[in-house]
Amino acid sequence: MRTLWASLVFAWLAVAPAGAEVTEADREAIERAVRGQIAAFQRDDAEAAYGFASATIQRLFATPELFLEMVRRAYAPLYRPAEARFSPPVADESVIRQKVVLRGPDGRFWVALYAMQRQPDGSFRIDGCTLEAMPGSDT
């Protein structure tokens, strides 16, 4: 069953919605930002995790500790994922979105959809994330 599920996840990742082209450099920078934040969560490094968030997100959470606590409580699959698989990022209108399929600590699969914000230096910061359980992902 797990092999079938993994095959379905892989097939889902291979299908990316249409949109403006995102360069390979953009894709690499976006993945670095998301992976960097996830790694910071796994180390409980509030400062580093907060540093990957956009200024808008930072204004919503006045301190790195408040931000980390919110993620710990509301986004457990992001806070402690067992696995993360990236699909190609897609530009729609003025936002670049990055889909990531996560396997949470409980074994369930989740879809995280990140809104990315390009910085003046060309790097990216995370400007929000929605998280939804994948249908049929109960183990």
Q: What can you tell me about this protein's structure?
A:
The chain has 139 residues and is an alpha+beta fold. The protein has one domain: Nuclear Transport Factor 2, Chain: A (Roll). It is built from six helices and five strands. The chain has helices at residues 2-14, 24-42, 46-51, 55-60, 64-74, 76-79; strands at 83-86, 90-92, 95-103, 109-118, 124-133. Strands 1, 2, 3, 4 and 5 form a five-stranded antiparallel beta sheet that branches. The longest helix is centred in the first third of the chain and has 19 residues, at 24-42. The chain is globular and about 40 Å long. Mean pLDDT is 87; it is low at 1-19.
Question: Which helices and strands appear, and what pairs or packs with what?
Answer:
Elements: H1 2-14, H2 24-42, H3 46-51, H4 55-60, H5 64-74, H6 76-79, E1 83-86, E2 90-92, E3 95-103, E4 109-118, E5 124-133
Antiparallel strand pairs: 1-3, 2-3, 3-4, 4-5
